[in-house]
Structure formats: C-alpha cells, structure tokens
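Can anyone check this?
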Amino acid sequence: MSKTHPFTDLLVVDFTHVLAGPACSYYLGLLGAEVIKVESEKKGDAIRHRGGTDAQAAKAGMSTSYLTQGAGKRSITLELESVDGLEQFHQLLARADVLVENHVPDTMRRLQLDEETLATRHPHLIHCAMTGYGRGGPQENTAAYDVNIQAACGLMEATGTQDSGPTRTGAPVLDYGTALAAGFAISAALYERSSTGQGTFIDVSMLETGLSLMSSSVTDYLRTGNAPKRRGNLANSRSPGAGSFPCSEGVLSLGVNEESHFESLAAALDREDWLTDERYAQRDVRNTNSSELAAEIELELATKTAKEWEPILQAAGVPSARLRSLPEALESPQVKTRGYVQTTADGVDVPTLPFRIGGAQAYAPSSKAPTAGEHNVEIEEWLCTCKGD
C-alpha cells in the first residue's frame, strides 16, 4: 500500500448517479481504490446526458458533469431487476470492500439490496448510502437534488441580501460537501473494520451535511434564538472591516477580525490615526461605528485597484483576497503550483482532491472516464475467474 495512495487494493462498487455519489467514489479512486461503476443497461448514469454547457458531449453520454467525476473507473452495465444481473452484482459485492450508492431506501428494498439484506449476505462490506434526508423520519424516501437541500437546510434563506431574497450558491456545494462527508465516514469505517473484520452501514444525509456546513449559525441560533439573516457580502463574524469592499477597479474581500488585523490594515493603508481615533480605537466602540469605519476603508481602497491592493495587504498580514472569476482562480499561481487540475489519459482536464497525503504532489485519475458498459467483458471474465475463490 502506498503512503500517498492509502486505498490501493481496495475495491469499491459504485452504484451511484448524478453528482454526490459519483464524486465520492471518484475521490476514493484518486486515493488508489479500484472503482467499478455499475450502471443501468437502459440509460446508464443520467448525468451522462445533462449538466455542463457542451451539448454535443452530453448527447454522446459524456457530459462535462459526468467527466468531472467519471475518470479512473471501470463501467459495467447490469439489469438489477433480472436474476442474472442481480447475481452478478452480488458477485461484485462479495469481492468488494465498499459499496457506495445514492438511491432512496425504497429502491434498494425493491431490488433486495437494502442494508439488512446486504449485511447478512456480505458481512465484510462497508455499505455507504447517500440520500437527501437520511434514513428514518417522514422524508427518508423523498428524492432530492442539491438545490432542494440548499432550500431545505436554511442555506438559501441565509444567502443573498435583504433586497435580493434567498439565493442559491453558485455551485452545487451540497453535492460535493456530501461526497466529502461520505468519504470521511468510509475512511472511519475502514479503520474500524481493520480491527473488527466486520463491515458496517453508513447513512449519509445531504440535509444534515448542509446543516453541518452552517454549524456556527446552528449553534448561534440554538444559543440565542437569533436566526441568521441575509447579509450579502458581509462576513459572518460581523467584525467591522470584514466583508467585501470596492476598489478603483475590482472588489477586495477583507477578513479583519482580530485586533492585530485591524492594526495591520491601518498601517497598510497609512491610517494609523484610526488606532487612536476614539471612534475606532476600542473594539466595542468600533462595532458601534462600523458604518463610518467601512466608509473610510472604502475611501482608502478607492485609490488603487484590487489587483494592486491584494499583495500589499497580504504582505502586511491582513487576511484579504481580490474577487476572482473561476477562470482567474484556476489560472492563479497558487492553484497552478498545487496541481489541482489534472489531465486524464484522453486529454480531459478535471479537478483533483483538495488535500495531499504523504508528500503526494497531486492526485491524477488512473484512466479516462469510461463509456457506459465499456468494461462489461473484462469485468465479467474477471468474475468468472474468481468463482472458485
């Protein structure tokens, strides 16, 4: 086992669709696991045909949304409602370490693949189920997408301004947050199995993932009864000098939350007078006069562009960053140096993991994203050779 790819020799069966489930198995594959994607013979993963802006690729079943987390896997198409297809699926599970799936419980029960059945037949298996609302409760079989859960968990209600009304985040953060949460849970279950030899069932809720991403707001509300309000670009810390500020060109995000940050900001803007000004010298009084301070900060920042201010303030120790578009962020020296974007064998650029283990430079997919059923013959032959094991 490689110290940089700790899941080498791990076999993952990926019975997922859309974004959250496929992303979870993709992450496991980047860390060394062998991933076999099981798709329907009739249509395969629905995300193959939608998502992204490349209509031709989507029509061919290789949409950019699919390619984002499709590489490094092998694909087999099975009809699980047939006796032969279900038996082949069980043959895969008998050899797998992990099953990742994101179907509602009723679907898994109909296919006789519910957690109780699988635990009895494959006691070694770590079965990770990812659903919108989690097991139990009146909504356990309610279908959900990222945008539904953003609405349900309170994230949309807390995003935007008082004038704009609730706003969805600009990316499917609940899908990818749930994928990372599931990967964390699978890692914990694998660690436990290393000592017990027993598999387990993992129940991942997108709704609770959304609430977890809002943890500080949850605690604040439970403690004070004050529900979060839409604050636009102001920071949750509510500190004066924490938020987004226009410059002569561009916008700068400041995170001036500590006294040392305020002192550094005053020095960088050549406004040390703020440190003795009775309106701003003390933190509690500064909070009272936050609007006046924000106006003065804007006046100073208006003398340069955000691109000019960013290196000045960062060098001074002020938490700050200029607003960038996605293309700009991907072209930044930091992202380039870290190797966050990797290229698959067929030349497709895709995101990798946001962390590195054991000195790894970056994690690249081991192979291109497969077409639906591309490895049917290869996997079926492998299963035949394993029958005597």
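Reply from J.R.: I decoded it. The chain has two domains: 11-213+337-386, 242-246+251-322.
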